[in-house]
């Protein structure tokens, strides 16, 4: 991506699996966490396609205590491009964002574990909204990814 070449599906699989496994490891008791794992882990990734989200959903197969929830940040292409063009020194240029938008499969209603929020507002508004959603899910007692 740093070279301006969009990732293909085959570029993403190992990374998504490694991300899922690192998350499961973080939620497991170990010497690293003094056998007291955190109640929650927050993972941030694009998960552009439903099949990418499915890779993360597999985490629940190993434990009924794990809860997966996705927060889809919905924004118009116009707003997204404006934001990208304002970033200085970032490797993700507008052509890369366009390729991600072309690959994007917006979550469907059948994906019950996805909350869609509109992120046309300020960064601060979006942060508050997402934090509110995450905190409400974490307090329910199950582990969140």
From TrEMBL:
Pathway: Carbohydrate acid metabolism; D-gluconate degradation. Its EC number is 2.7.1.12. Keywords: ATP-binding, Kinase, Nucleotide-binding, Transferase. The keyword Translocase does not apply. It comes from the Eukaryota. GO terms for cellular component: cytoplasm. GO terms for molecular function: ATP binding; gluconokinase activity. The keyword Transferase applies. GO terms for biological process: carbohydrate metabolic process. InterPro entries: P-loop_NTPase, Therm_gnt_kin. It catalyses: D-gluconate + ATP = 6-phospho-D-gluconate + ADP + H(+). Belongs to the gluconokinase GntK/GntV family. NCBIfam families: therm_gnt_kin. This is Gluconokinase.
């Amino acid at each position: 991506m740093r070279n301006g070449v969009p990732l293909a599906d085959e570029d993403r699989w190992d990374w998504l699996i490694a991300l899922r496994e690192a998350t499961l490891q973080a939620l497991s008791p170990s010497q690293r966490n003094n056998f007291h794992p955190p109640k929650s882990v927050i993972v941030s990734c694009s998960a552009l396609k439903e099949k990418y989200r499915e890779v993360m959903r597999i985490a629940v197969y190993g434990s009924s205590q794990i809860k997966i929830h996705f927060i889809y940040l919905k924004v118009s292409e116009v707003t997204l491009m404006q934001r990208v063009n304002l970033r200085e020194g970032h490797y993700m240029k507008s052509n890369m964002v366009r390729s991600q938008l072309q690959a994007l499969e917006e979550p469907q209603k059948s994906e019950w574990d996805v909350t869609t929020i509109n992120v046309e507002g300020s960064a601060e508004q979006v942060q508050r909204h997402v934090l509110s959603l995450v905190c409400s899910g974490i307090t329910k007692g199950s582990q969140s990814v």
